[in-house]
Design goal:
By secondary structure, the chain is an alpha+beta fold. It has helices at 13-20, 28-36, 109-116, 149-161, 233-240, 296-308; strands at 2-5, 11-12, 40-42, 45-46, 52-53, 58-61, 80-83, 87-92, 140-146, 165-173, 180-184, 187-189, 197-199, 207-215, 219-226, 269-277, 284-288.
Length: 309
Amino acid sequence: MKILKSESDNIRIDAAILNMLPENNFTRSKVQKMIEDGKIRVNSKPTKPSYKIRLNDIIEIDEMNENNILVSPEKIKLDIIFEDDYFLIINKPKGMLTHPTPKNNKNTLVGALLNYGCSLSNIQGDERQGIVHRLDKNTSGLIIAAKTNEAHLNLQKQIQTKTAKRKYLAVVYGNIEQDNGIIDKPLVHYMNKTVKMNVSDNGKEAITLYNVLKRYDGLTLLELELKTGRTHQIRAHLSSINHPVYGDTLYGAKGFRSKINLKTNEQLLMSYYLCLKHPKTNDIMEFQLNEERYDEDFKRFFKIINTKE
């Protein structure tokens, strides 16, 4: 952790950190993300990117070594759904990290994109080149990668303001009685861990919409849409209503059973639909995976279900 003492007054904290740490090559968006993730605090308390620092404020910054993550091209074939001069839509497989982390820099989408050889936005730093938003390692499906910084900012804003629509498929334990509903529960990092999330009145706003597509014997197939974009939001929310995602051991799946005995690589959760405006032409574009492009766990699930019907 690095500790700084403010020598300025009435300046936004994100701008102040860029001025105080020019050697770290931080971008403003990177600093804002660190603040939102709780990695930057003022006087030992969480803050906001818009907070204006005061003289002698104590600023704490975690994980200063994040900038040193080694990023190398990896020879991994990409399932590209769409590509032009501005961005790509990729079908990310299960087991692939979106970007390198301090603990793991192998089998990442960034590494695969670097090997692919196209231009990539760099405003999020070397370890997140092209990455507009992320998917969990064991969540498969559609993800956006930007080729230019201008396209990145446009697409990122669409994600943040939810003008871009993202829909997910999930298989959950139990039968959800309501055909549709809203899960509106704030989320916070569980016991200060960097991964697992927990419902808490002290957390950040998190809203998930769900729609029941089909009910099976002890399982429900859901379509979900995010109104906020918190870490593990869908997984944590579904667990909080006692319907964890099938196979999701981090969020309680081990305590549930079903008559469908399917071994999966963790959660049956997939980003299968995207609707956005083209960052240059403003044309509305829609992308949806067909079953041939579902990950292997989902394919096997539907195969089992179809044989039982």
